[in-house]
Design brief:
The complex is a heterohexamer, with three copies of chain A and three copies of chain B. Chain A is built from 16 helices and no strands. Chain A is mainly α. Chain A has one domain: Up-down Bundle (Na+/H+ antiporter like fold), CATH 1.20.1530. The radius of gyration of chain A is 19 Å and the shape is globular. Chain B is α+β, with helices and mostly antiparallel strands. Chain B has a single domain, classed as 2-Layer Sandwich (Alpha-Beta Plaits). Chain B contains three helices and five strands. In chain B, strand 2 and strand 3 form a beta hairpin. Chain B is globular, with a radius of gyration of 14 Å. The chains are: A mainly alpha, B alpha+beta. Chains in contact: A-B, A-C, A-E, A-F, B-C, B-D, B-F, C-D, C-E, D-E, D-F, E-F. Chains A and C meet through helix 2, helix 9 and helix 10 of A and helix 1, helix 5 and helix 11 of C. The structure holds adenosine monophosphate (3 copies) and sodium ion (3 copies). One adenosine monophosphate sits at the interface of chains D and B.
């Protein structure tokens, strides 16, 4: 599988976005367009997941959900240990950054689905449910690590101990807009009658791929814009943004293939769940819950490093690895 | 008829919009104007693509005293690490009935 | 007909929007998205109405239009008398509020159409023409009542009499953006050749239901946000926001079934015309023509009370009433 | 080269945008800046969903005299019940050719 | 071919937009919507062109491109000579204005395609490639004419000679957002597999006509708004805005029919390439490269005069002329 | 804790946005706020439909000296024919850590 694999419109539009900014084109999206597109994509994927859920095997669904939670807790802890190795990155930033890797980038996940759709490869739909589940555990781990760090810092400084406002932070994590939208759309997709859903399909299914192209074009420009901050972010973090998806993706692949018994398609999707870093659900939670961390770090990593890496390298890589691993 | 007031402007992350509105409520401030802005600063590029990288600007006309109360509350937040960018200017209010009432 | 009836995606998305705000989620639509969606919906419904109009029976069409005008004049007058009973609400606010009930909420009307479409119930299309017609009479009544009130107030105060600038106010009412868009799209739908219209259908018809879902999601959030103002608006007005649609809807039902001879589907639609309160066309007209009234009152009522009431209760209620009434 | 001017800001409902622009025209004011804002106030929440619940902010640099004329016109409107929120600030204009001309 | 020809929804929506502003309706599009719509249209036309390009005859494609370049250089020079005749318009404004006429209005071109599609008339697709090519030569001519003018002026004033920053201006012209988007979408359309493209079609092809209607509605309003500036712009320029498309369209027609051997459909499209004036790609280039010119002039001409003239008169006119010319 | 600064506002065409940002970079200015606005002026209607007819407003809090440097740079541009609309106001900065640093 060569270059051909990524010659699908969605990925090409992403590349076009990056290219436009690299040649310093003045191409620009109007305010609000990307927000609108990402609302659309979350609803569409939620409806799709819900409709599938209605036909899902309960046992495997529950098993998937449990593994999703494990993934969501495990990846950030590994990430944190890497970032804290030799005290490279301070505690607060390490906590905030790694939380992003425990969660998921819907854009990357959808690109992987587009990749499978266009290549005509079948895939299990449980990963869609896993994606929804994975939005929150990572946030909780991030807040927890930050709270611990905060305590340690305050003991060192012997200053007054500021209690972490757990209740409001957890509320924030669980009522995050994208979480509510995904779960809501999923429930609607599951309880609506198939006839009713069919009327929504031209909107949610048929134009989906085209809307994804538009979204990725914009994200390509945004990724390239973020790349300018590489210098400020430093080589350690940029390296982390490439190593972490490799680790997370490998764990995801093993979980999907060995523990959930998925085929190549489903395995690629879980690998991408593991590999990708959230840039919609987690950043707000960290802004709110870990104000001491610098948003520039985590946004640059998630959008400027890991996202383009996954779209351009991660998807074909884990696709080939999955074929090899599953045999 | 007109009166002297302070125009205070607060630029903060979209994420913290409700946090700031709660401060208004706490201080009994019921009137304000707000709109979305982009920006760059210590916390990096705020390009307006997602909630997490969008800013909001609040614009309030207040009496000097009320403004100082608000600044104090905002500074408590700033000490916790939140990035609110706050400044004020002297203004003259020209809407007559807005001069009668405090706040 | 039980809960099932409202388990259609459009209504579920509305409920999701309300739910999101009730649990204080930070879900948010970007600036301009709802304005864009509502432009789209007006165009789509206009085109549909126009295409149908081309095949309409002239006699029945004219009869429908005349009854629409009657409805548009009658409901606000009834509403005004209710609000002025024992001087509960001052004249200016009463005039402005009731004007909203003489006009129509396109969102509610479209939800009723979605309800019928999904349930596979046939309906007459004359109500679409009636909807367009009903946008203006209510505005005129509102302005008239306010002008009378203004005169009375000025006589009491013995101050200088400010003449109501009728010409500019009527111009405003008749050139209101949504009125122009609806009528314009209707004319275009009527005069374009069927082959030409077919090229527009994927946009105006096929993705319609999905766009409506998105719109109702946003309106659900907005409705919930408005509910917070209940306290300021007071119990009288909130009660009015529930009673008025019951009255208006009943009148509409009788008109449709007894005077226009519509079936259950068409009767439901006219009932909803009677029951719903405008939040797009009338508020601007009142802001302009009755500046003395408080926009907070009429927006809270139309969006925060009557709209959710109609979507969640009114539609299934009048559907069952129509079945019962028609026999 | 720079000169003293007044910065007047007018916040009003979207619906009244053309009404205010007509006042500008009446006074011979040809230059202004405007943008959409949200807000809360005596007339309730202006959340920007429809024209009826959106605000617009006008920003004008004017000479003191012209500003007072404009304020007077706006106040006539306010007395009729229209809610225009109007305030002004002292500003220094730095675009040279904008200092030469009046208005 | 009478009035019938322009009774297609796209043109009717344009007329509705003009009408709305003429009757001073408060109809308004939300911020960013037209920018979003025009991004969509550029992508859709680019993809279409690219897919066609993959099947194009190389010889004719190259010949088309060369004639496109000739057209792009020729029309602005003719325009400049007209405007400079008896020194009617100063050099800087003449250069900036005529550059717009060498380039193309995508909106007009798409309306012409809609016109052909709806009328069931076949057309060559080479004009799509020509459209992309024509975006830049005109900009270069405009900058060149302005640079010459600047030199002459400075010699007259004996002031210091400001060198034209050619490198940055050419960069600007070639990396202009709409140019990058069009060429990028074209390349993507050409290299993506047909199966992949098919998934994008519901978005890029099927809803296309409807989106175009929405866009033209907005542009109709904008055109009418610009018409108010007629007085300031003066009668010479307004006349130029009508004469120039007649000249450019005639040249385009001759090129297409006589030199490229196109049928009526393709000939109409090239005539429209010649007749139309850019309002997306060229104005930014002129703002940047010819700051001395008044944007009000060229925007009023392109949007307020030539665009409505072409949509309402030019398309049917050149259609009939093409039939007559080709015989 | 607060300090005196200048609030400078620059209104220019969207097309010139990057041009102005380059000036910021040249002067070492890293923090600013910006948002899209509409307007009318000598260069006609800026109604926000396309990039070419949209305006952007930059808002910067700077020290007096830095502001004058920026004004000087902008004026060089204005002399070349570019239409930047520039004015400034006296402001009081209330975010404590923004007072320590210059720029
Ligand atoms: N000096 C400044 N002038 C104008 N806006 C500023 C300035 N500094 C910060 N801001 C705004 O405040 C936001 C947060 O700033 P910061 O905390 O420095 O990242 C930025 O995104 C800008 O929108
Ligand atoms: N004190 C204030 N500070 C800032 N903006 C205000 C204030 N009062 C009113 N406004 C703005 O003016 C609009 C109309 O105000 P009101 O007439 O009080 O409803 C509000 O929606 C706000 O955008
Ligand atoms: N007196 C003024 N007050 C407010 N904004 C102005 C004023 N003059 C110009 N502007 C803004 O600056 C932009 C460019 O102005 P101009 O160069 O006069 O066309 C306009 O589109 C307005 O947004
Ligand atoms: Na992950
Ligand atoms: Na009604
Ligand atoms: Na041309």
């Amino acid at each position: 599988m060569g270059l051909d694999a990524i010659l699908i419109p969605a990925i090409l539009f992403f590349a076009l976005g990056v290219f436009a900014k690299v040649i310093k084109s003045d191409l620009k999206f109007p305010e609000g367009l990307s927000k609108g597109l990402s609302l659309y994509l979350l609803i569409a994927i939620g409806l799709k997941g819900g409709a599938e859920l209605a036909n899902a095997e309960l046992g495997l669904a529950i098993k998937s959900i449990m593994w999703a939670i494990v993934l969501g807790f495990l990846t950030p802890i590994i990430g944190y240990m890497i970032l804290r190795f030799r005290d490279k990155i301070d505690r607060m930033n390490a906590a905030a950054i790694t939380a992003h890797y425990g969660s998921v980038s819907a854009g990357t996940f959808l690109t992987a689905i587009a990749f499978l759709d266009v290549s005509g490869i079948e895939y299990e739909t449980y990963p869609i449910i896993m994606m929804v589940v994975m939005e929150t555990p990572a946030i909780i781990i991030g807040l927890l690590l930050a709270a611990l760090a905060r305590k340690q810092l305050q003991q060192q400084e012997a200053g007054e101990t500021v209690a972490t406002p757990w209740k409001s932070l957890l509320h924030e994590a669980l009522t995050n807009g994208s979480v509510v939208l995904l779960i809501g759309a999923m429930v609607i997709g599951a309880i609506s009658s198939p006839e009713a859903m069919e009327k929504v399909y031209p909107f949610s299914h048929e134009i989906f791929m085209g809307v994804l192209c538009l979204f990725l074009l914009d994200l390509g420009m945004e990724a390239a814009r973020r790349m300018k901050a590489f210098k400020e972010v430093g080589v350690t973090l940029v390296a982390f943004g490439i190593i972490m998806p490799l680790i997370g993706g490998t764990i995801g692949m093993v979980v999907a293939a060995s523990f959930l018994g998925f085929g190549v398609g489903g395995t690629l999707l879980v690998a991408i769940l593991g590999a990708s870093a959230s840039y919609i659900a987690v950043p707000p939670a960290m802004r709110m819950g870990v104000p001491e961390a610098n948003p520039s770090y985590y946004l640059t990593l998630a959008l400027g490093v890991t996202f383009p890496f996954n779209v351009l390298v991660g998807i074909p890589l884990f696709y080939n690895l999955s074929i090899w691993y599953i045999g | 008829m007109s009166c002297e007031q302070r125009l205070i402007q607060i630029i903060t992350s979209n994420i913290l919009e409700n946090r700031v509105k709660k401060l208004f409520k706490k201080l009994g401030i019921k009137s304000f104007t707000s709109f979305g802005v982009n920006g760059e600063g210590d916390t990096g590029l705020q390009s307006g693509h997602f909630d997490a990288d969008s800013n909001v600007l609040f614009m309030l006309l207040l009496s000097e005293e009320k403004m100082l109360e608000l600044v104090e509350e905002l500074n408590k937040d700033i000490q916790k690490g939140y990035h609110h960018f706050v400044f004020s200017l002297n203004a003259q209010m020209h809407t007559p009935y807005k001069c009668k009432s405090e706040v």
